[in-house]
Amino acid sequence: MKYDYLIVGSGLYGAVFSHEMKKMGKRCLVIDKRPHIGGNIYCENINGINVHKYGAHIFHTSNKKIWDYINQFAEFNNYINSPIARYKDELYNLPFNMNTFSKMWGIVTPQEAKNIIQSQIEDLNIMEPKNLEEQALSLVGKDVYEKLIKGYTEKQWGRDCKELPSFIIKRLPLRFTYDNNYFNDKYQGIPIGGYTKIIEKLLEGTEVRLGTDYHNFVAQNGDMIQRVLYTGMIDEFYDYKLGVLEYRSVRFEQETHETDNYQGNAVVNYTEREVPYTRIIEHKHFEYGKQPFTIISKEYSSEWHKGDEPYYPVNNEKNNALYEKYQELARGEKRIIFGGRLGNYKYYDMDKIIEAALDKVEELKVQ
Ligand code: UDP
Question: Is the C-beta atom of 171 inside 6 A of ligand 1?
Answer without folding.
Answer: yes
